[in-house]
Amino acid sequence: MPELPEVEVTRQGIKPYLLNQHIVHAIVRNPRLRWPIQSNLEEVLVGQKITAIVRRAKYLLFICSKGTLIVHLGMSGSLRLLFVRVSPQKHDHFDLELANGVILRFRDPRRFGAILWSTGDVMQHPLLAQLGEEPLCPSFDGKSLYEMTRDRISSIKEVLMNNRIVVGIGNIYANEALFRAGLHPRTMAGKIGLSQYEKLVCSIKIILNGAIEAGGSSLRDFVKCDGSPGYFQLQYWVYGRANQPCRICGSMIKQIKQGQRSSFYCPECQK
């Protein structure tokens, strides 16, 4: 599933071609995504100007003159930029055509993504209103995460995966950040001290920024807006490396299940 880095890579890639452009045409080929696309969306979008493209958690928000188009990539979705007309394929469910001739195409083989229209304050939309801190914002620091976890008996890995606390980290990057911070994924969040949280938050920011710089992780479906893959998977320290030697100490990387997700860790470097 695309996480924060993959969504941010997509945002940065499409922004130069869409910002301040008018929508001249919209095509809905298959409205049956995670939530049905509203029946009149094509008519609603035509003539609107895209004034900003922002990310909130793993949602892309296309701020338009009369509302906001909310896009979520789901488990297998991607947005592609087309500069010439290309016949749509089976899983190409939605197109936006801009006044500059660029076409933005939404592809989603598994159809767990979403394309929704919102008027009013989009940050109060039910999908966004209860979201937690943005991990790359300056306000997210060790002290804030420390204070949010004082009464938590859940593991630190589960806390990092809780979107009401901090958004968009996801399983891959939670594993990598915990390794960098030297924290075992089963460590109880409420027992971690302030200095350890400061190290963890620093690790989260380094890992996420590194993934963005590498174009995200392409393990199965994710590609950038030009169709090319990301390469951060080549830099993994622990994720997907069960029974392989730790690159720091040589111990075998372990794999466990937490909340139906796999956690990977080094038993020597993470205690």
TrEMBL record:
Involved in base excision repair of DNA damaged by oxidation or by mutagenic agents. Acts as DNA glycosylase that recognizes and removes damaged bases. Has a preference for oxidized purines, such as 7,8-dihydro-8-oxoguanine (8-oxoG). Has AP (apurinic/apyrimidinic) lyase activity and introduces nicks in the DNA strand. Cleaves the DNA backbone by beta-delta elimination to generate a single-strand break at the site of the removed base with both 3'- and 5'-phosphates. It comes from Nitrosomonas communis. It catalyses: 2'-deoxyribonucleotide-(2'-deoxyribose 5'-phosphate)-2'-deoxyribonucleotide-DNA = a 3'-end 2'-deoxyribonucleotide-(2,3-dehydro-2,3-deoxyribose 5'-phosphate)-DNA + a 5'-end 5'-phospho-2'-deoxyribonucleoside-DNA + H(+); Hydrolysis of DNA containing ring-opened 7-methylguanine residues, releasing 2,6-diamino-4-hydroxy-5-(N-methyl)formamidopyrimidine. Gene3D superfamilies: 1.10.8.50, MutM-like, N-terminal. Belongs to the FPG family. Binds 1 zinc ion per subunit. The active site is at 2 (schiff-base intermediate with dna), 3 (proton donor), 58 (proton donor), 261 (proton donor). Its EC number is 3.2.2.23, 4.2.99.18. HAMAP family: Fapy_DNA_glycosyl. Residues 2-113 form the Formamidopyrimidine-DNA glycosylase catalytic domain. It holds the Pfam family Fapy_DNA_glyco. The keyword RNA-binding does not apply. Its cofactor is Zn(2+). This is Formamidopyrimidine-DNA glycosylase. DNA binds at residues 91, 110, 152. GO terms for molecular function: 8-oxo-7,8-dihydroguanine DNA N-glycosylase activity; class I DNA-(apurinic or apyrimidinic site) endonuclease activity; damaged DNA binding; zinc ion binding. Residues 237-271 form the FPG-type domain. Keywords: DNA damage, DNA repair, DNA-binding, Glycosidase, Hydrolase, Lyase, Metal-binding, Multifunctional enzyme, Zinc, Zinc-finger. One of its GO terms (biological process) is base-excision repair.
